[in-house]
Structures are given as C-alpha cells and as structure tokens.
C-alpha cells in the first residue's frame, strides 16, 4: 500500500485536493445561496437540494468544460506547432505525427508495449488517438451539462421577473451563455500560453515542467 501511494502520489494528491475544493465550493456556495434567499424573503434550501440545483451544477460544469477544452487543444496543437526553448514543445523539426518507429507501434513495438500498440488497423488507429478522444468526450459532455444547467437557471430568473422563458436552442445563442463560456475559455488559453512561453526563460529546480536550471534558453523540450 505504501509503495502504491508513493508511486501514485501525484495523481492522488490532485484527486484529494480536487474533492476538498469541490466540497468547500459546495459548502460556501450553499451558504451564499441561502443568504441571497433570505435577503429576498425566499425559503432556504438544504445542502442536498442545493447540490442538485442548476445554480451549483452550472458553476461546476463551466469550469470542467473549459479545463478539458484547454488540454484537448494543447494536446492537438503540440502535434504540429512548436515553441523554441519551451519545455511544453517538441524539439524543432519533430512536428507531425512521427514515424511508426519513433512511436514504437506495429512491428516497432517493444515487448511490454500496450497490446493495441502492437496491433494494426482500427485498433491501432483508435489507441493512437485515445487520449484526445476521451478528452473531447468529457469536454463535450461537460459543455452540454453546462448548457442545460445554465438554461434551467436562466429560465428560473426569467420566471422570477415574470418574463417568458427561452428554449434550449435560444439559450445556446444567447449572450448569457456565451459570456460565461468565453469568460472561462480566455483564462485557460492565457494560462497555457503563459506556461509555454515562461518555461523558456524561467526555471523550477527538480520539476519535469522546467528545464534543468543551467540549460540554455534556446534548448527546446528538455526537462529537469
């Protein structure tokens, strides 16, 4: 057990702080929601009711979809695009899908390579794109969940102000939906772009996201 924890410590660390942050968001969000209910002389709700409400779900889904979009685009962009001196880039001249030999697939697979990496045809094609396929699926699912929960919340506000509700398709074309969507997207794109450029000139000793401290700025894709 101790060995498993040590060898999986990075994933476990982020899993723990993810759940901690989600629980904290739920608790403070519930408190804030009830404060607003009281201020408007409306009834408060239980924590369980709040967790299943569109108010909570839309905030969670807005963040999830933008995060998965960020990583999906980064995975795809780094196939073809490079950044001289960045640890987030492949070496210059390595743009593209690379050869079977470089990717260690088919006849070039190693004895302990994944089974589908040794196979050909559709199995290799699926496995070769499995990471992006899963990331895109999660992004589309969370973006759809954001649209449905946001639509429900928006119609609840319209009803409160005695205005006609919108259809889901009308909501998808509304400024409300796109304002919250683009608000999240722009921050994710800025963060990824900053990481790619800052890693050219700045260092963090011991981190694989940084080049070794003494490595020249122009060295590309080296990790420490």
Characterise the protein shown here:
The chain is an all-alpha fold and 224 residues long. The protein has two domains: 1-52; 54-96 and 129-224, no CATH class. The protein has ten helices and no strands. It has helices spanning 2-7, 9-39, 47-51, 54-80, 100-103, 115-118, 121-128, 130-160, 168-172, 175-201. The longest helix has 31 residues, at 9-39.
Estimated helix fraction: 55-70%
Report Rg.
23 Å
Q: What summary fits the major beta sheet?
A: none
Q: What string gives the helices and strands in order? A: HHHHHHHHHH
The fraction of residues in strands falls at: under 5%
Classify the secondary structure makeup into a structural class.
mainly alpha
Separation of the first and last Cα atoms = 28 Å
- pLDDT average, as an integer? 91
Number of domains: 2
- Low-pLDDT residue spans: none
Annotation field: number of helices: 10
Question: What is the gist of this entry?
Answer:
The chain has ten helices and no strands. The protein is mostly helical and 224 residues long.
Protein traits:
224 residues, single chain, elongated, mainly alpha
How is the secondary structure organized here?
Layout: H1 2-7, H2 9-39, H3 47-51, H4 54-80, H5 100-103, H6 115-118, H7 121-128, H8 130-160, H9 168-172, H10 175-201
Helix pairs in contact: 4-8, 4-10
């Amino acid at each position: 057990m101790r060995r498993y924890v040590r060898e999986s410590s990075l994933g476990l660390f982020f899993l723990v702080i993810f759940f901690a942050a989600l629980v904290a968001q739920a608790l403070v969000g519930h408190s804030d929601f009830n404060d607003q209910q009281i201020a408007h002389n409306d009834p408060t709700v239980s924590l369980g009711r709040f967790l299943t409400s569109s108010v909570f779900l839309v905030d969670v889904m807005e963040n999830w979809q933008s995060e998965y979009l960020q990583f999906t685009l980064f995975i795809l962009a780094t196939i073809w695009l490079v950044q001289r001196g960045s640890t987030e880039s492949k070496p210059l001249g390595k743009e593209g899908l690379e050869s079977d030999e470089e990717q260690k697939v088919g006849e070039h697979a190693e004895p302990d390579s994944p089974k589908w990496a040794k196979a050909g045809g559709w199995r290799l094609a699926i496995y070769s794109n499995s990471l992006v396929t899963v990331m895109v699926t999660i992004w589309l699912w969370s973006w759809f969940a954001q649209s449905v929960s946001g639509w429900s919340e928006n119609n609840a506000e319209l009803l409160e102000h005695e205005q006609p509700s919108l259809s889901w398709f009308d909501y998808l074309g509304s400024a409300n939906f796109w304002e919250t969507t683009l608000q999240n997207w722009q921050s994710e794109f800025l963060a990824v772009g900053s990481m790619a450029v800052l890693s050219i000139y700045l260092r963090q000793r011991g981190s694989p996201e940084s080049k070794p401290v003494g490595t020249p700025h122009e060295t590309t894709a080296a990790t420490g």
